[in-house]
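Appendix C reproduces, verbatim, an entry submitted by the partner laboratory led by Prof. M.T., so that reviewers can inspect both the input and the predicted structure.
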Amino acid sequence: MGNLFDNMLKGDESIFLNPEHLDYSYQPKLVPFRENQQFYIASCIKPLFDKRDGKSLLVHGIQGIGKTLCCKHILKELQEETDDVFIIYINSWIDETAYKITLDICNQIGYKWVADKNTKDLIDEIASIINKKSAVIVFDEFDKIQDYGILYSLLEKIYKKTIILITNDAGSIRKLEPRIMSRLNLDRLEFKPYDFNETKEILKTRKNYAFVRDVFDEDAFEAITIKTFELKDIRKGLFLLKEAGNIAEEESFRRVTLKHAEYAIKKAGEFNDLKIFKSDESNVLELFNRNPGKSLKEMYEIYRADNNKSYKTFQRVVHRLSEAKSIDLRKNNSKTI
């Protein structure tokens, strides 16, 4: 009996070391196997350093293959490199109307006098500030924008800029009017799915950072790698690694076994495309279900009353849920977030 208990975790022990490395919103220092894509994105931005107009770019490919991660990595490096370029990132699942987009841009460039100003007034203010420097503006999930006229306005008013449109569906570019397409003059960059060895290496790196050394059985890891490659989505692989670890801990195991990995894969399949949520995500998802039609601002006030957490925390959770397609923000009649 002693050997059985020797293999069980004590109450204060964990097989996790840095579990945040398994969160798909986590930004690693390096983005492996995407060096060529990062170089290409950087080359579109580079003319801004010479006070010239940058190139605009369509970044496309299926979900979970590093498009957003690469762009955010470039933006982070750009922020560390210069103060002469405004860096603006818009999640179009959250900010889908022209007014909400302009409010978000105002917030990101530090313009606070937004009261009683309409979209046109705000764009004029944005342009007057950005035109003192230059800007990289990223629209993630750009095809969720309700009024593409905002793109035309920014193209017209801002002199030196690189606009990056990210989408899972390259065909969505056909939604743009010819007058917008002609001004964008888009280059295109396709992200191909990772091959099996790349998938395995990415998951291995994250696993090694996230877990205590040598707690993950090789056959368990192999099963998750195969399933991730089949799904063509690294985010789902990260979820499976974390879920297998959680299952092992719930059973007080010191190791993640093949049984735990297989149960994680089976359990995930029962929850609609791997959408199992952490406590914060569960709370916000329940909040959306309980309050159909309420604005995001109204829901944040309810969330804050129950959780006493910051607006930024709420935004991050909403962003994760919208990326996972678990909530549809277009159904909420909000003017701000």
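The longest helix spans residues 234-250. Additional entries are available on request from the coordinating office.
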